[in-house]
Write a structure and sequence with these properties.
Arc Repressor Mutant, subunit A, 5-stranded mixed sheet, two-stranded antiparallel sheet, Stage 0 sporulation protein J, DNA-binding, DNA binding
């Protein structure tokens, strides 16, 4: 375990506290300068894409009353402008408060480290949705040849979690937006990955939202479509009544085969599966043994 921790320190995961220690420990006032807000711009590789406007508004009101208490950390570019390393919420709130200048600390940090900082800091605060998280992982892998194992060590999440999160990027764009907006969860998205047709994926995702299906119900819906090799979506998915499930299990124990009970408004149906003539004769014998 000691060895693994050492590797983490030398590779990814140094985070803001290691790369810019004075931010966590208290910045020396001589390092803080004021820069016009118009000369500052967000980092396009920032993993966080969705910001809570209500929280930004609250922060903006605080800034109007007390000013920006913690400086924004920026990186200078070749055009005399400054890219945000940390503090985009403060930047957005300051713009909303119509400030002309904000306090900043300038740090000339490599872009790879900036991406690591942004990813780790957002994950620690649980600020990222699953799609943003997946895009951040992909950015590190594609641009900086970081391995999933290294990301796992850096962010403190398991390797399977990294892999499964990355798989969400195989969903259709419309479905990913539904996850980003919080209309459904990453669990729903993972269930829909079994459907390769993007139009069908989107149709199922809309059904999930409209009917407020659980992840389990979504998995069952997808399984039904996949097993039947059809693009036709069942009209309604309902959780099966616990009494019906209990009766099915009792009948399955009696007949030794799969039993399905479907219940309608006026009538129901019991389906008993068999796979050869011998099984059919055995079922019939049990049903007719008292006659």
């Amino acid at each position: 375990m000691e060895k693994k921790s050492s590797k983490r320190t030398n590779r990814l995961g140094r985070g803001l506290s290691a790369l810019i220690p004075e931010i966590k420990e208290g910045i020396d006032s001589k390092d803080i300068i004021s820069i016009e807000l118009k000369n500052i711009y967000p980092n396009e590789t920032q993993p966080r894409k969705v910001f809570d406007e209500e929280k930004i508004q609250v922060l903006s009101e605080s800034i109007k009353n007390y000013g920006v208490l913690q400086p924004i950390v920026v990186k200078p570019d070749e055009n005399g402008k400054y890219m945000i390393i940390a503090g985009e919420r403060r930047y957005r709130a300051s713009k909303m408060a119509k400030l002309k200048e904000v306090p900043v600390v300038i740090k000339d940090i490599p872009m790879k480290d900036i991406m690591e900082i942004a990813l780790i800091e957002n994950l620690q605060r649980e600020d990222l949705n699953s799609i943003e998280e997946a895009l951040a992982y992909k950015g590190l892998i594609d641009h900086y040849k970081v391995t999933q194992e290294e990301i796992s060590e850096a962010v403190g999440k398991s390797r399977p979690h990294i892999t499964n999160t990355l798989r969400l990027l195989n969903l259709g764009e419309a479905v990913m937006k539904m996850i980003e907006s919080g209309q459904m969860t990453a669990g729903h998205g993972k269930a829909l990955l079994r459907i390769s047709d993007k139009e069908l994926q989107e149709e199922l995702a809309k059904r999930v939202i409209e009917e407020e299906l659980s992840v389990r119900a979504t998995e069952n819906l997808v399984k039904t479509i996949a097993e039947n090799n059809t693009k036709e979506v069942p009209k309604k998915i309902k959780e099966k009544d616990i009494f019906i499930v209990d009766v099915e299990e009792k009948l399955m124990n009696i007949f030794g085969t799969k039993v399905n009970i479907s219940k309608g408004k006026k009538k129901g149906k019991i389906e008993i599966e068999y796979y050869n003539d011998e099984e059919l004769n055995n079922i019939l014998s049990m049903m007719l043994e008292d006659n």
